[in-house]
Amino acid sequence: MTALYIASKILTFPGAYIRGFWEQLTCRILGLPVEIPGYLRIDEACGHVEHAMAKKGFAAYLMATGPGFMNFNAGFALFFGGFMNLKYMGITPFDSVPLFILYVVMTYVGISMLCNVFPLVEDAMNLYGLLYTQKKGNIIGRILAFIPTVITYAGAYAEKYCVTLIFWIVYIVLAFVF
After folding, report:
1. Cα 160 to Cα 154: distance, rounded to the nearest angstrom
2. Best CA proximity match to 82, nearest among 172, 174, 173
3. Which DSSP helix (H) or strand (E) runs through 36?
4. In this structure, are residues 15 and 77 in contact, taking their beta carbons and an 8 Å threshold?
5. Which end of the chain is more exposed for a tag (fewer CB within 10 A), N or C?
6. What is the DSSP string of 39-97?
7. Would you give the end-to-end CA distance of the chain in angstroms?
8. What is the pTM assigned to this prediction?
């Protein structure tokens, strides 16, 4: 499964690289040491930054959800701008070649960022473990973080097994067929 995971990260390299940048920035903000620099390595952490695990609940929450939130916002804006012009405005190469290329690139980069929203499984497990097993953090914070934690935990496994990439490929194919 690791080969499929690495292939999906290489296929969506703009989003994987930007996700790694957001993780590195979050590590610097939180003061977490980065162990191995580089965002696109050929291993199980491709598109992520190897870092020390957070020891506090809020830091773990920010490390698991912050970079994905930034990737989602930027990716959705790019995808929406490119896809709407291609699908609903009907821009084709016959209308304007530069605009068509721009919208195709925007759609690709947007999808690649949306395919790289979730953290590594280790970060999701660290978040769940700190908040709900070790009960670090106050009760109100744990209640408010429950749904995002579950989504992050499930999404980390979905991304590990390339479900997010398959979902977006199927979505694009169905959108242009129907």
Report:
1. 10
2. 172
3. strand 34-36
4. no
5. C
6. S--SSTTTTS-EEPPP-SHHHHHHHHHHHHHHHHHHHHHHHHHHHHHHHTS---TTT-H
7. 32
8. 0.90
